[in-house]
Amino acid sequence: METWTGVLAFAGQIYGDFAGYSDMAIGLALVLGFRIPLNFRLPYFAVSPVDFWRRWHISLSTWLRDYLYIPLGGNRNNRRMRNIFITMLLGGLWHGAAWTFVIWGAFHGAIITATHWLAGLRVFARFNDSPARWATLAKWALTFYLVLIGWVLFRANSLEGALALIADLHTFRGLPEPGQAAGLIFGLTVAAVLLMHLMDRFVLKRAEWLERKPWLFWPLLVIGQLLCLMIGEPSSEFIYFQF
Questions:
Q1: CA-based max dimension of the chain
Q2: Which of 57, 95, 116, 170 does the annotation list as catalytic?
């Protein structure tokens, strides 16, 4: 349970860190009269690895598509799978020369190519196109699980450490007793990650509505700033500044 809590916490941290400073840059640019496209669109609500990369770090995924994937040949010459894998492998290398980043990129390349391959199978295509709520939930759960495994590879200091953590994630030691701190912390971590996405979803869907309601928008903004001042920790460097 503690390992799952740590992985979930890192997933929330890296999203809040990177999406947060991306949104700050977008806001500052807007003050100066420039409109910068969104860099994140609720990535943890993705229902496939392909969908995840349409929502996560959109500026990087767009750059990889335009300057690596398409020059490699894109979908032409029956080399689509190879080109996707090479593109994601180099995308991992872009984050750093460590083997963990390279394997993280290879992992995402593998699950994206697997998604495209499975889409060609009739049984999977029927499931993938199903409008049933249970099918959407199953696709989301599998995608989020794969993304979390990827974050273990991304965060670990070594491949051996990453494999040990992944093995620990799949070692069942029983559920925590009601009232135990481990269960409570896990629940709070899940709630925090979910709350971040729900808040972003509200802003994305209600941005224009909020602009027409300054009497609501400005008090919410002030309350948010006060909360940051009261419960926020001393400033620290953004995680993604190292890349």
A1: 58
A2: 95
Domain limits for position 158: 49-173
Q: What is the model's pLDDT at position 147?
A: 97
Q: Which residues contact 130 (CB under 8 A, 6 or more apart)?
A: 136
**What does pTM read for this prediction?**
0.84
pLDDT digits (tens, 9 = 90+) for 123-155: 787 778 787 888 899 999 999 999 999 999 999
CA-nearest of 29, 17, 40 to 155 is 17
Is residue 122, in this structure, part of any structural domain at all? yes
* Nearest-angstrom CA–CA distance, 202 and 206: 6
Which residues, at least 6 apart from 102, have a Cβ–Cβ distance to it below 8 Å?
A: 89, 92, 93
Query: Is 108 one of the annotated active-site residues of the chain?
Result: no
Main-chain dihedrals φ then ψ at residue 233, nearest 5 degrees: -90, 165
Domain count, the chain: 1
139: how many CB neighbours lie within 10 A of its CB? 17
Contact at 8 Å (CB) between 44 and 147?
yes
